[in-house]
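Quick question about two entries, pasted in order.
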Amino acid sequence: MSGEYNLDAIVKKLTSNGHEALSRKKADEQPMPSVEILSGIVESLRSVMFPGYYGPSEITPDTMPYYIGSTLDSVERQLGDQINRGYCFVCEREDRDQCADCAKRSRETARRFIAKLPEIRELLLSDVEAAYDGDPAAKTHGETIFCYPSIRALTNHRIAHELYTLGVDIIPRIISEMAHSDTGIDIHPGASLGKRFFIDHGTGTVIGETCIIGDNVRIYQGVTLGAKSFPKGEGDQLIKGLPRHPIVEDDVIVYAGATILGRVTIGKGAVVGGNVWITGDVHAGARLVQSRAMQMAFEHGGGI
């Protein structure tokens, strides 16, 4: 081995603050959010939404209220703590006395989130229904809950999106990236998804932050609903938060490999064929295939 092995010197270099973007700014700050604890919270919520499928498999109608109640009691405390850590993680304040109400605000946010769980569950049940109705290979609704990556990813997303809507920092993104790692489906927590949403197969699907997707929409693997460009402001910095992703209206189908970029609208009931590249609006009821998309793009300057 070349060079002298000096553990103290290695540790000193790794703990130096030479790279602010890669290291914590203050050693005495609140602990950072825990991916391990957040993963446990999500799995607990999954078991509340789909009792018996996740969590204790022997749960019965008699024991279900006790299980759900005790689980949510634990989730409320853990989630409130993680939300508070998320606030601290992004906070730029030097004077921590100004943050005296953060812990209280975090607990209240956790409770507001839990109050939304019945609505989240209704959305997920509609997604299960869409998966069962939309895939002839599905033998039962339970099969889609157990086996379909779409339902797993959408469970994470609907949890993350509600937290995002409540103004929670960093935690929603962590939860969405858990699903991305597990399923290959990448949905930003800011994306708004309607009822009965189904992603068939799912691998390689990307749905951007400002996407708005209507009801009864079905997309396939490898679909990208992304941004076409990234405007810059002062100092050549990207302008954050601009609407830059597609709007997909009700009853749309987008087949495998299609790429739809920019703040364009895919009209109600349109069908977008596989491997199509779209950067313009698609009118309601359109049937778009690859050769036709290329012809119309040339004839109409990119609009479809």
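Here is the second entry:
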Amino acid sequence: MSASTAVKKSGHAAGATGRKARKPRRAGWWLPYALLAPAVIFELFIHVVPMVTGIWMSFLKLTKMFISNWGNAPFVGLKNYQVALDFDSAVGLGLLKSFGITAAFTILVVGISWSLGMAAGVALQKTFRGRAIFRTLFLIPYALPMYAGVIAWKFMLQKDSGALNHLLFDNLGLPGTSRSG
């Protein structure tokens, strides 16, 4: 009987730690990040920045005097939350009632929409005469928000009375002449 000992070969010098060697980066490793960057930036500007701004505004004492220039409103800390959560006061009770109505409305609308959508989806699985017409009718609500968005942007970008023209020339004072009345 013979005993053999196998020695594991490693590319490390004697006494070196057993760390794995890092693989070299492939060419174009940055491309996925570059393609995602615009979406991440737009997500920040469209959702995260307004949300953080709203949270910051909740710590300010906004009145009619400061609503148009909320950056100069005095800081009150958690006092707004203290007022909102005091359910013995009229403000707290009104906010609680408003929250209850909003929650009930949300549950009701989501429940009805989900139920009708599932029923329509199951009903349209079977082949029958006129199925294409019904599928088209069910897709109209998906197209309407896009149409409404196009109309809204058309109004905002009007040359004579658009909101963007008003912002750029009247509020920011960019050189040129404002065409809004």
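Reply: Residues 141 and 147 are 10 Å apart (CA to CA). DSSP finds five helices and no strands in the chain. Hope that helps.
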